[in-house]
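Model it.
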Amino acid sequence: MFRRFIGTKAFYRSVLSLLVPMLIQQFISSFVSLLDNIMVGSLGTEGISAASIANSVLMVQMLAIFGGLSGASIFGAQFFGKGDTEGVRSTFRIKMYFVLLCTALSIGIYLVFGSSFIASFLRGESNGGDLALTERLGTGYLRVMLWGLVPFSVAQVYSGTLREAGETRAPMVAGVVAIGTNLFLNWVLINGKLGAPALGVEGAAIATVISRYVELLIVALHSHRHTDRYPFFRGAFSSLRVPSRLVGRIIRTGLPLLVNEILWSLGMTFINQFYSTRGLNAVAALNITGTAWNLFCVMMFAMGNAVSIMVGQRLGAGEMEEARDVDRKLIFLTEVIHVFIGLAMILCSPLVPLMYNVGPEVRDLTRRLLVIAGLSLPVHSFAHVTYFTIRSGGRTMITFLFDAVYTWVVTVLLAWFLTHRTNLDVLQIYFCVQFIDVIKLVIGLLMLRSDFWARNVVNDA
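Modeled.
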């Protein structure tokens, strides 16, 4: 019985070959985000809170892009598994149309309402900080970051299409170079090095924007210079026409994912806003915790992508039983790994806050939040790979119910109630919000056992 969850050496070699480039890219990205956070944190509680709030606002657009591309990526991976080059090419064009439309709409919304969004996070106690300064810094950071939304979105189209074809090395290289660019420019622009002006929080935003153009340039050049390996990029822009039937199928499959990511990200934004009612110290501590969380979750994010690619390609090839077997082994591997990663997060909890120029209250609060996060990590990793399993078979309405609806009906309502109707402190609230996903874990386990998710979505596309 237990052997059903253990793969062969060949299986783990194939997993590693797919995972390692994604892990390297995501680890470096998260580690540099931590360093970026530390650099901004050197400006004080106001600086780190301003960047945190602005990034929470921007998360809605970024996850909308992710959600919209997710529906199309199901078809991309299955078209590739089927050997349908024209299908992959058409899917690429549809994704490009989507990201340009979504980004233009997002920029318009942020230009009109951005400062109001920032202000909504600053209604709690100041804890000795300057709320007006935080709002001003956050608004300036947001305005600069808007220049990077287009390259960010288009780069996701290229990188996602490459990954659907099993190519993870090129996106990794592009990401690593962009991350290095961001880190170097942070050093130059935040505190004013090499004769550059000290731009503070806005300097961090400028560095991020430039790095996104660098990433797009690298991944696009690689894609179009190697059409022998990626024939679906050949003639990708020679025609802008796409099969209307395929557009309809992708919209029907992808719309729940798009709405899911928008609602989920809005839910997380609201939860962060609820936490902010506990004061500026809570905002700073939760930002540090969130950045560290992203670093410790790189394996979880990579395993989600691995499930999407490995299971999706087998479903596209009609290998249903093999898809189920691969998925079962990937989920088991994910859980074993994240028990140890959670323990590592707990062990590192006293060290992470020491890297920031914040007061002792923020450091102690961060340490305790990190312990709670480490304990809850295996719960969230299971929910994450379950989401990608169900998504790989195109059961996007179910993923919508499992993710966004659950978030709003359970998690958001719980966070609102605890912050507005009780006197619990932020630690107690964070614990409850993190572990409420135990319910989600049970639901996911029941769905996985039913095997309803395993289906081929491209046969009629």
